[in-house]
């Protein structure tokens, strides 16, 4: 692992195993969001966490608006890390938009990956005539406009809404703080790439077994999204867990760990 790559993405490597399990955080977050889940895999895997550019402690100076004008730029980040660490047979665990980032990386270099695990994924957030994404286009446009005009106000409202679990307000506050800590220009472009993107046609291209973990109540990625993905992805398994909100790895890490471990232990 070269110092440049290590520092660029603030890569952390732990664990006693040899097979790599690579945890990728979602929009406006960083690798600390996996702190309750990742340690459960350290006994048997090489556990790798990192921050995307503009998030956490990654190198903001490496940000390039042209590269990150699509999720393919973030997929290249994943592949750059795999190349530098010489990772093979990777188990990729992505939260939210990172599920699609991992999907794109696996399509580009399928031999690098053994399987994908997607936590609260969505290939498209906007409702279409024959597709339920969870939002009308006008809702997404208003959300993005609010980010542009009042970023911190947006973060204050959206953090608790995305997290749900109103009886545990500390979870919403953590997400809000994470949004606010993300570079604003990075977050604004990443939000557009995320919420206006459409990766539905990419689902059939995935050549690796995939676990889709969906919360029973998630306003950002409803169960219908998981069902759609399972219907269109070969070798996919849908697991709906009894958890509220879009970030089950924070709100119920025990249930999230159990879903991942059961899948890995029973995988062929």
Polypeptide structure, described:
- The chain has 268 residues and is α/β, with parallel strands linked by helices.
- It has a single domain (3-266), classed as 3-Layer(aba) Sandwich (Rossmann fold).
- It is 41% helix and 16% strand.
- It is built from 10 helices and 7 strands.
- A 7-stranded mixed sheet has the order 1-3-2-4-5-6-7, with helices on both faces.
- Strand 6, helix 8 (223-232) and strand 7 form a beta-alpha-beta unit.
- Helix 4 packs antiparallel against helix 7 (184-195).
* SSE series: HEEEHEHEHHHHEHEHH
Major sheet, described briefly? 7 strands, mixed
The amount of helix comes to: 40-55%
Distance between the termini: 31 Å
Please tell me how large the radius of gyration is.
17 Å
Strand order of the largest sheet: 1-3-2-4-5-6-7
**The CATH class:** Alpha Beta
Task: Predict the CATH topology.
Answer: Rossmann fold
What characteristic shape results from the CA principal axes?
A: globular
Q: What is the CATH-assigned architecture?
A: 3-Layer(aba) Sandwich
Low-confidence stretches: none
Mean pLDDT: 93
Structure class: alpha/beta
Our count of helices gives 10
**Number of discrete domains:** 1
GO molecular function: hydrolase activity
Family: Belongs to the AB hydrolase superfamily.
Keywords: Hydrolase
Protein name: Alpha/beta hydrolase
Please tag this protein with its features.
7-stranded mixed β-sheet; Rossmann fold; alpha/beta; 10 helices; 7 strands
Brief summary of the model shown:
By secondary structure, the protein is α/β, with parallel strands linked by helices. 41% of the residues lie in helices and 16% in strands.
């Amino acid at each position: 692992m070269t110092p440049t790559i290590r520092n660029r993405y603030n890569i952390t490597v732990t664990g006693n195993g040899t097979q790599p399990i690579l945890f990728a955080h979602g929009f406006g977050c960083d690798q600390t969001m996996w702190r309750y889940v990742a340690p459960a895999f350290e006994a048997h895997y090489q556990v790798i966490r990192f921050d995307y550019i503009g998030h956490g402690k990654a190198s903001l100076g490496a940000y390039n608006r042209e590269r990150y004008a699509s999720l393919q730029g973030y997929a290249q980040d994943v592949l750059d890390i795999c190349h530098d660490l010489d990772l093979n047979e990777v188990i990729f665990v992505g939260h939210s938009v990172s599920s699609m980032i991992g999907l794109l990386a696996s399509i580009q270099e399928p031999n690098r990956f053994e399987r994908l695990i997607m936590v609260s994924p969505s290939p498209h957030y906007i409702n279409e005539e024959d597709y339920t994404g969870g939002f009308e286009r006008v809702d997404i446009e208003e959300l993005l406009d609010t980010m542009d005009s009042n970023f911190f106000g947006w973060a204050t409202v959206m953090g608790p809404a995305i997290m749900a679990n109103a009886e545990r307000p500390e979870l919403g506050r953590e997400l809000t703080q994470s949004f606010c800590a993300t570079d604003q220009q990075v977050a604004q472009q990443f939000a557009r790439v995320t919420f206006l993107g459409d990766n539905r046609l990419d689902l059939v291209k995935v050549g690796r077994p995939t676990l889709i973990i969906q919360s029973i109540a998630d306003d950002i990625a409803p169960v219908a999204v998981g069902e759609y993905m399972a219907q269109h992805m070969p070798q996919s398994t849908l697991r709906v867990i009894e958890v509220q909100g879009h970030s089950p790895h924070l709100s119920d890490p025990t249930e999230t760990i159990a879903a991942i471990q059961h899948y890995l232990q029973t995988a062929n």
